C-alpha cells in the first residue's frame, strides 16, 4: 500500500484540533441535547466508526475524506469511553488517566517490537495501520481523562487550560526544531496534548458565560467546527498539498525518524 496517513503540516494540526473539539461537543450534543444518553450515543458512534474504518482499511492510499472522517469519529468514541468509565461507572479520573496511559504505552511497545518503527510515514501495511488507529483511540481517551482531571477536578478552567496546553505543545515544537528532540517522540507527545487543547476550546466556546464559556452551545460549536473541517478536507482533496513525499512504501526510507515533521 501507499502511505495511508497525511503529511504532518499546519493543515494537519489545525484539522486535528478541530476534530478533538468536535469529539467533545458532538458527544455532549448527542448525549444531552438530543437525549440519546451515554449508552445509545456510544452504540451509534461506535457503529459509525467501524464503518468509517472499514473503508479506511480498504483504501490503498491516503484519502482525505475517509481519513479525517475516521479521526472525527474516533475522537467522539474516545471521549465516550472515558466518559463512560468516569461518569457512569464512577471510575476516578486519576485511574482512567493512568489506565489509558498504560494502554497507550503497551500499544507503542508492541508496535515497535513488531515493526521497529513508530513513524507515521511508515503506515504501509494492515498491521501497522491497526497499531496506528489503536494508538489514536487511546490518545483521545487519555487526552479526555487527563483534560477533565486537569480542567474540572483541579479547577483550572477552560481557557487557562488552553493556554497551558498550548504552551506545552510550543515547548515540544521548540525542543524538536531547536534541540533535535526525536521527531517521532515529539509528534506523539504533541498529538496527545492536542486532545485536551481541543476539548477545552470546545468547552470554552459551548458552555454558558456564567461557567466561563462563550455560550455558543454544543450545537453551534459542533456545526461551526464541522463546517471548517469539511472546507479544509475539500481543499486538501483538490490541492493534494498534504500528500507525503514518499508514496513508494520503501521500508528503509519510511522508517527514518526525521521524515516526520512537527
Descriptive account of the structure:
By secondary structure, the chain is mainly alpha-helical. 74% of the residues lie in helices and 0% in strands. The protein is built from 9 helices and no strands. Helix 1 (10-33) packs antiparallel against helix 2, helix 4 packs antiparallel against helix 5 and helix 6 packs antiparallel against helix 7 (183-206). The longest helix is centred in the middle third of the chain and has 28 residues, at 126-153. The radius of gyration is 18 Å and the shape is globular. Residues 247-262 have low confidence and may be disordered.
Number of strands: 0
Task: Give, in order, the helices and strands.
Answer: HHHHHHHHH
Gyration radius, in Å: 18 Å
Shape: globular
User: Average pLDDT, to the nearest integer?
Assistant: 86
Give the helix tally: 9
Uncertain stretches: 247-262
Strand percentage lies at under 5%
The largest sheet, given as strand count, sense and whether it forms a barrel, is: none
Structural class: mainly alpha
Helix content estimate: over 70%
The span between the termini is: 24 Å
Amino acid at each position: 500500500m501507499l502511505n495511508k496517513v497525511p503529511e504532518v503540516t499546519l493543515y494537519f494540526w489545525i484539522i486535528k484540533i478541530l476534530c478533538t473539539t468536535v469529539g467533545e461537543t458532538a458527544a455532549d450534543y448527542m448525549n444531552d441535547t438530543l437525549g440519546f444518553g451515554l449508552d445509545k450515543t456510544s452504540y451509534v458512534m461506535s457503529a459509525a466508526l467501524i464503518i468509517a474504518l472499514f473503508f479506511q482499511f480498504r483504501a490503498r492510499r491516503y484519502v482525505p475524506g475517509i481519513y479525517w472522517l475516521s479521526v472525527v469519529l474516533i475522537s467522539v468514541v474516545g471521549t465516550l469511553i472515558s466518559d463512560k468509565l468516569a461518569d457512569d461507572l464512577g471510575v476516578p479520573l486519576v485511574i482512567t488517566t493512568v489506565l489509558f496511559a498504560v494502554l497507550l504505552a503497551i500499544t507503542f511497545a508492541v508496535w515497535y517490537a513488531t515493526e521497529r518503527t513508530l513513524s507515521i510515514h511508515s503506515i504501509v501495511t494492515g498491521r501497522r495501520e491497526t497499531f496506528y488507529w489503536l494508538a489514536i483511540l487511546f490518545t483521545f481517551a487519555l487526552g479526555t481523562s487527563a483534560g477533565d482531571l486537569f480542567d474540572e477536578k483541579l479547577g483550572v478552567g477552560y481557557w487557562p487550560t488552553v493556554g497551558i496546553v498550548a504552551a506545552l505543545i510550543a515547548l515540544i515544537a521548540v525542543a524538536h526544531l531547536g534541540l533535535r528532540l526525536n521527531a517521532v517522540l515529539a509528534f506523539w507527545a504533541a498529538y496527545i496534548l492536542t486532545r485536551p487543547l481541543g476539548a477545552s476550546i470546545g468547552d470554552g466556546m459551548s458552555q454558558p458565560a456564567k461557567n466561563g464559556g462563550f455560550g455558543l452551545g454544543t450545537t453551534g460549536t459542533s456545526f461551526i467546527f464541522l463546517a471548517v473541517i469539511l472546507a479544509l478536507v475539500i481543499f486538501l482533496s483538490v490541492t493534494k498539498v498534504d500528500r507525503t513525499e514518499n508514496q513508494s512504501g520503501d521500508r528503509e526510507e519510511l522508517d527514518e525518524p526525521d521524515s516526520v515533521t512537527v
